[in-house]
């Protein structure tokens, strides 16, 4: 068999490799200063090949988030009927965000880049909308309503808001596992943000 390298075929790459390269370059020299050509060259591919993987350089940092959306939909499809709706939402979202300790530094870098670079933040809408719709679709099935009905939309949007608050608090404090923040925020959402019964001994006023 003839070696592909002898024929000059470009070596293979992956979305994951491009993501790691892009994150490093964005961090080292800035997002605006990093070109698609630089990312591609570092990966050993052409700029044209890069666009087979991602439509823009901003989209490089979102593909794992999009995989999470698919994982949410798959997990919601397996939820037992007897599990209360918001308990199920809390469980599925928390479980989808369990990371190995060695993956946490990279996750923080990705989130800080997305949150601090306007061009990256501007691409967030479509991805957050897909995440929200995954939750709304589950709520719609449970409630027997269309996905664009009031209550399914409310469940999806408030869940996304609570999850984003948990991510922001986790990034700022870095004092506990991400799932601790998510679980607390979604538990509070499920009980309508009423005080936790375990903390009812706080003084009034």
Q: In total, how many beta strands?
A: 0
Classify the secondary structure makeup into a structural class: mainly alpha
What string gives the helices and strands in order? HHHHHHHHHH
The fraction of residues assigned to DSSP E strands is under 5%
Helix content: 55-70%
CA-CA gap between termini = 80 Å
Task: Write down the overall geometry.
Answer: globular
Mean pLDDT over the full residue set: 89
Poorly predicted runs of 5 or more residues: 1-10, 200-205
Instruction: Report the biggest beta sheet as strand number plus sense, adding barrel if it closes.
Output: none
Number of helices: 10
Query: Radius of gyration, Cα only, in angstroms?
Result: 21 Å
